[in-house]
Amino acid sequence: MKYSLSLNSRPFESIKSGIKKIEGRVPTGLDKNIQFDKFKAGDIIVFTNNENKKTMKVRVLGIRHYKTIRLMLETEGIKRVLSSQGTIEEGIESYNRLEGYKESVKKYGIYAIEIVKI
Question: Domain limits at 38?
Fold first, then answer.
């Protein structure tokens, strides 16, 4: 299956350079109709950079569901999930600043999508 998702510049560049290996997503905002629980290894995601509209293809290696952002960051590792280094608390704050994430994570949890650039 092929999916299209948008990204801000910093995470886009971090994935492109191979630093960020996990993309955390919840069904909210532009993603509200995407069924992340249906993603599977081998699927393709085309990410579009919100700022310059450049695109990048990645392959899904796996997907895992977590009840909280904290659990995802602790399990997957900050360096693999965040596009900027920091503490778990800073990572939680960063996700909670994204529109609709705080409420949606409480309702749906968060999906950790393991990816590799192709």
Answer: 2-117
